[in-house]
Design goal:
Blueprint lengths: L1 E5 L4 E5 L2 E5 L2 E4 H17 L3 H4 L3 H25 L2 H6 L14 H19 L3 H25 L14 E5 L2 E5 L2 H20 L7 H20 L5 E2 L2 E2 H32 L1
Antiparallel strand pairs: 1-2, 1-5, 3-4, 5-6, 7-8
Length: 268
């Protein structure tokens, strides 16, 4: 059991990382929450598929490839930036029960696999991405609850109102609940993107806003985190966040240019 407190809110949690057992095997809350986020997203996607003209059978086939590739990519990304430890503990490389997935690794590998699958199936990648990314944000938000249970993805010490008290190897500390900041941000992105889908005019529009919004949120969360993956002294996720923001703005500018050209054609 882990004890987690929110002093200002007068909340205290005593949480086990293990949700339940199947025989002698432990099933962790982290895995349960990831699966729950995926299942809920798949259910909600069924109400949106008609708008994007995507056959659900095609989507599910691509989804399976993306899910497997995304999980492998997320783990590989995490292992690569903790390579010294894993070279000395090879038996831990595939031990993901209590954490160790880098979301950016999953997003990058998943996007590459989805792009290749769309080429093979003659589907439009941006159309698929517009359809998926609101639910990706929702799943990310649910997954962050797993970080809370695992007592990971927290930030530097703080005295702010939302501070979280945990026991660390250095003793009791009150820290930024970075998982909470990102969870709220991801749920907000989900709501905003769903609203934007109702007014969407161009392919890639929703995808671009996801890149922009998530990149901004993740950048500032990473500045606070103490367990960020680094390359030297550089926080890798901060660099990737900046790239996502740049790509999101680029897609927005591209859409604005296309919109102006379309308006001029309609005026003639």
């Amino acid at each position: 059991m882990s004890k987690i407190v929110f002093p200002s809110l007068n909340l205290e949690f005593n949480i086990s990382k293990i949700a339940f057992k199947i025989g002698s095997a432990d099933v962790y809350w982290y895995a349960v929450l990831i699966v729950s986020g995926i299942v809920l997203s798949l259910f909600l996607m069924g109400f949106t598929k008609k708008k994007y003209g995507i056959k659900y059978e095609d989507f599910l086939e691509i989804f399976i490839y993306v899910l497997i590739g995304g999980l492998l990519g997320a783990r590989l990304f995490y292992v690569l930036f903790n390579l010294e430890y894993y070279l000395q503990n090879l038996n831990q490389i595939f031990n993901i029960q209590s954490g160790g997935l880098a979301i950016y690794g999953g997003i990058i590998s998943g996007a590459i696999i989805a792009y290749i699958a769309c080429k093979i199936k003659n589907l439009k990648f941006f159309n698929l991405a517009d359809f998926v990314v609101p639910y990706l944000a929702l799943s990310q938000g649910i997954g962050r609850i797993g970080n809370f249970i695992n007592q990971e993805a927290y930030g530097v010490e703080t005295t702010n109102f939302f501070r979280m008290g945990i026991e660390t190897e250095y003793g009791y500390m009150e820290v930024h609940p970075c998982f909470l900041y990102e969870m709220i941000g991801c749920f907000a992105i989900f709501i905003i993107l769903k609203l934007l889908q109702n007014r969407q005019k161009y392919e890639g529009e929703i995808f671009g806003f996801y890149l922009l919004f998530y990149g901004i949120i993740r950048f500032f969360v990473e500045l606070l985190r103490v367990d960020s993956l680094t390359f030297g002294k550089i926080k890798v996720s901060c660099i990737i966040s900046i790239i996502l923001v740049f790509l999101g703005i680029s897609l927005y500018i591209k859409n604005m240019i296309c919109r102006k050209k379309s308006d001029k054609v309609n005026e003639k």
